[in-house]
Amino acid sequence: MEIISQQNIWLVPFFPFLASIILGLVLFLFPNSIRSLRQFCFLISILFLMIAMFLSFYIFYQQITGSPIQQFFWSWVITKSITLELGYLIDPLTSIMLILVTTIGVIVMIYSDTYMFYDQGYIRFFCYLSLFTASMLGLVISPNLIQIYMFWELVGMCSYLLIGFWFTRPSAANACQKAFITNRVGDFGLLLGILGIYWITGSFEFQSLSERFFELISDNKINIILSNLCAVSLFLGPVAKSAQFPLHIWLPDAMEGPTPISALIHAATMVAAGIFLVARMYPFFEIFPLIMNLIAWIGALTALLGAIFAITQRDLKKGLAYSTMSQLGYMMLSLGIGSYKAALFHLITHAYSKALLFLGSGSVIHSLEPVLGYHPKKSQNISLMGGLRKHMPITAITFLFGTLSLCGIPPFACFWSKDEILTDSWFYFPFLGFLAIFTAGLTAFYMFRLYLLTFEGEFRGNLSNEYQFYSLISIFGNPLFGSNTPVVKLQTTNKTEILYPQESKNSMLFSLIILVIPTLLIGFIGGPPIFKENSSDLLSNWLRLSINSLNNIHSENLIEFFQNSILSLSIVFLGIVSAFFLYGPQIKTTSKVDKFPFIMLNSNSFFVSMYNWSYYRGYIDNLYYLIFIKGIRFTAIYLFLIDQWFIDGIVNGIGIFSFFGGEIMKYTEGGRISSYLFFLVFCMLFLFFLYSYI
Q: Which ranges constitute the DSSP H helices of 31-144?
């Protein structure tokens, strides 16, 4: 086992990569036997990923029991001027991320077997899923920037394939292209940063390039502006990959892919890759205070914007997508203020909670599709849901656990990590702390809005044929019809058979129940010690080996932790109460229509404008469309006209002039020398008089 855990860690990404190759060969060699080979392909995928998971657990066990950091390299390209190496790096950060990716990957695969069973692309889905997981695992174990960039691009390619999995649907095709192009912007910056760092330091390895940069800056041997430009360029990659403002626009549209992929992207793979890279390069970024502040403020702004946009979303998955954007902003904020452990802690707790929420939303969508239809505007529209707790109790309670965790309610996992970020940001700079705490209140509001409109009240899907339900819920959640037309009465009057969603199958529920366990317990690995001063939590002790500069901005015991959490918990409970007041189950004897009459009567009110600004994502997508798409089209048309009429006009004009000049001159070609002499003398006299006149 010693050989397997150290020298053969490459087996961890190799097994899921091998599974993807086998499934690809099955698709290519046996296209007519796909239906009969589905279970075989599923078993290959899940078995190989479980082997990788067990290896990850053993590596993690070695790291926490005192095994030293290991690096292995193989020479790839050797010349006189450059040497490129491939290999792997084993440290606590690597081992934690390996467990995170493999455990969530296994759960998503078990869930996907039922969710995708009747899809014609079942085997293709698991082929992409295995390759996606292998790419992320390869990225995690990479020891240098060259190798991490290779797997970085593989992760992007797999996300393109999976977001556009149902590519015959135009919205899915557009979404995968949007994600791909947006990430190309960030990846180009990342490549420039990598090349700039190598040009300055002569190294791609994480530790050596950080040490070299520190020496050059300390000795004033490098231009500080150039150094900051390299750091900013490098940071562009995580900005796009982790959906940070202003390159966040691809994330909500990525919900066009199958829901299990949404869970994997938002929990453990693509968006986690950006946070991981900043964490891996943390000693490098720490050298530049300006860049650290930039990271913190971009994270804070992303967290706030994600929460504001999530408030008004009617699509269940898009609401969760903006929630992911907001939580990733928290992680980036934490890294920017130097709270390295809190950022990784929140990455872990959020991963399991968000996987639970997305798989829960998939359970809802999977059950509603036979009732409402298979288009996302029907099956994912929370305006057409409600009352699902009665019909899907296990899905409802697990979704509620994920909601409580993401809101930061103790003792759920995200409470410990999020409140550590809130406290650290407050001690770092109070205004950042204020933004973070305010965002926490918005998080509680929009998450309970999603839960209440989905699971509480009465089922509204049966009214979708008689009402346009976009208008049945006002901007503050109040139904626009009173208690005189209850759903039950409408059903009795019509005397028609009404369909209701049913609870999902056991394999899907098994995945949800398993994810409840880390959602409840994983937070205790990083929570404060109980009544002990000057002691570290488990996660800090594990991470201290992989980064020497690890320190806590504010260390505290359990009692101090709860004391500092009073303000944030108060804001969170205020958000929950507000959500219950506006979106909770309606009292049959009382109509809530008249609570905000001034808002409904005045369409030009400030609140309506703010609602529209939030619902249309701050008009950022429209701005980008105007600047980049229309701007590029206009520029292309303008340049085409210049090319057609100016450049081509000059060339064509010269040709036409030469043609007609030749036609005229041929009539002067009589063969008589006297004629030639006459024209020669005439032209010389003409030029002489012209010169004399000028």
A: 38-64, 92-115, 122-140
Query: What pLDDT is recorded for position 572?
Result: 92
DSSP string, 422-473: HHHHHHH-HHHHHHHHHHHHHHHHHHHHHHHHHHSS---GGGTTTS-GGGTB
For 508, the token pair is: 């899907």
Sign (positive/negative) of CA torsion 494, 495, 499, 502?
positive
Residue where the block lists tokens 């009665």:
390
| Residue among 385, 164, 153, 329 nearest 253 (CA) | 164
The DSSP result for 155-175, as a single string, is HHHHHHHHHTTTTTSHHHHHH
| DSSP E strand stretches across 237-335 | none
**Which tokens go with 343?**
């950022």
Q: Evaluate whether 140 touches 88 at the Cβ level (below 8 Å).
A: no
pLDDT tens for 330-384 read 999 999 998 888 999 999 999 999 999 999 999 999 999 888 888 888 888 888 8
Contact indicator for 243, 271 with CB cutoff of 8 Å: yes
**CA distances from residue 94 to 12, 71, 296, 589, 681 in whole angstroms, order as listed:** 12, 11, 24, 58, 91
Burial group, residue 470, by CB count within 10 angstroms (0-12, 13-18, 19+): exposed
Which DSSP letter does residue 584 get? Answer: S
DSSP state of 480: S
Cβ proximity of 470 and 314 under 8 Å: yes
